[in-house]
What we know:
Radius of gyration: 18 Å
Shape: globular
Number of domains: 1
Structural class: mainly alpha
Number of strands: 0
Distance between the termini: 22 Å
Amino acid sequence: MTLLYILVATFAGGLLSVVIAASLTVGVLSKVVHHLVSLSTGVLLGTALLHVLPEAFESSASPHSLFLTLLAGLLFFFLLEKAELYRHGHHHENDHHHHHHGFDRHQAGRGGWSVLVGDSIHNFCDGIIIAAAFLTDWHLGVVTAAAIIAHEIPQEVGDYIVLLNAGLSRKKALLYNAASGLAAVLGGIVGYFVVGPWEQLFPYMLVVASSSFIYVAVADLIPQLQHRLPLRETLAQIAWLAVGLTITMLIVGSLHSGHGHAH
């Protein structure tokens, strides 16, 4: 029965967020895409620095080795992006990709694969977290799954935009997002069967996931926001960034209160 709950929760977490991301953004995407870059910057940084990293550092793993993992992760995503840039050559205005207007083509969406790798690792970890929560207590499982699904939604919207921005079609962007979402189901199954032995590696996987979010936010998204803009647009950027951070903080709060009730 517990395995069934884990499968339903992780499947919902992986795919529901993609479906919601698609339905939320397909119609209004071209109008609000630059706002959503600000929003996803806030969500990615908030998720990494306020939720995922603290969780890793609360474990018994040594802080020194976790920081080393963070550094290795940042360098890995830097090199991954370098390889990706060489593979793609340069983007040109007439490269027949349906880019959304208003982006600097060289800045836009180089983090496509970095986001997918990081998101898959993150979703896999989420699956393990959900499994561990359900194995501990049914109520904790439900609260944890709900919080994870809630924070996946704005993040999947962000990932979806990064992928569209990288020149992928909507269909492909959704397909890749759904595939990375299914990593949560895999994590749930692994978590159910081998949650004990994996616990030592878990903090390091969380740190690698964080490093991808930090890298994409700092190297890909923030440069898109760093243009001289009218005051009104600058304030809108800051406001959307704040909304992204607030969403993350509310979810972290609900996660902690959920943990509190379980204990």
